Amino acid sequence: MIKINLIAETRRAVATRKAAPKLSTGIADLGQALLVGLLVLGLLVAAGWWYLLQRDVKRMQEEVRVAQQEVDRLAPVLKEVEEYKAKKAELERKIGVITDLRANQKGPVQIMDQVSRSVPELLWLTSLEVTASNVAVKGQAYNTNAVANFLENLDRVPEFQEPILIETQLRGQAYDFSIRFGYQPKPIRAEGEATPAGAR
User: What is the pLDDT of residues 30-75, one digit of tens each?
Assistant: First the structure.
């Protein structure tokens, strides 16, 4: 008689069925562990990134603090520089005004100097009027030869145009005369500037 043990087969089938869920549970645990590992890794990367950002922020704050200290240290120097620039601008303005005044004075002074050098003996001037480009001279002389010599002397001055005798009239023992001429002033050179070759 052959005996078949069905109970053992049933137990084996049940055991086989029970073992299969353990395998699927292990795969699920592995997936969860992997997910947790990825989350932890992400958190570590985020924490490292945050740490690096905080370090950069602190470094930049330190640089700003040092730069601000440097600015505070240099503030008096910058103020002195600004004051120096303002004083320099004011001095340059004053120098410009003085230069303009001197330039404006040189024209009439040069004319008076040249006219006074041209005055011969027995002649004197009573008035000298200077406009933008003309000069009017009035005076008296003991004779007409002195007036003629004065005209010749004025004509020799390069800056003066040919003088014109407006009138000559005997009044008492002296002759009153009036002369008019134009002039071209020399270009004004800055002090220390060399005179061009061939210039008078």
Answer: 888 888 999 999 999 999 999 999 999 999 999 999 999 988 988 8
Contact present, 139 and 124 (Cβ < 8 Å): yes
pLDDT band of residue 5 (cuts 50, 70, 90) is low
Q: Under DSSP, is residue 165 helix (H, G, I), strand (E, B) or coil?
A: strand
Specify if 72 maps to a domain: no
Nearest in space to 120 (alpha carbons), one of 81, 146, 94: 146
Grouping H, G, I as helix, E, B as strand and the rest as coil, residue 148 is helix
With respect to residue 59, please indicate whether it lies within any of the assigned structural domains. Answer: no
DSSP state of 199: -
Nearest-5° Cα angle at 83, 82 to 86:
90
Q: Is the pTM of this model over 0.85?
A: no
The H or E element spanning position 182 is: strand 174-182
Closest CA to 114 of 143, 156, 83, 145: 156
Q: How many domains does the chain have?
A: 1
CATH number at residue 137: 3.30.70.2830
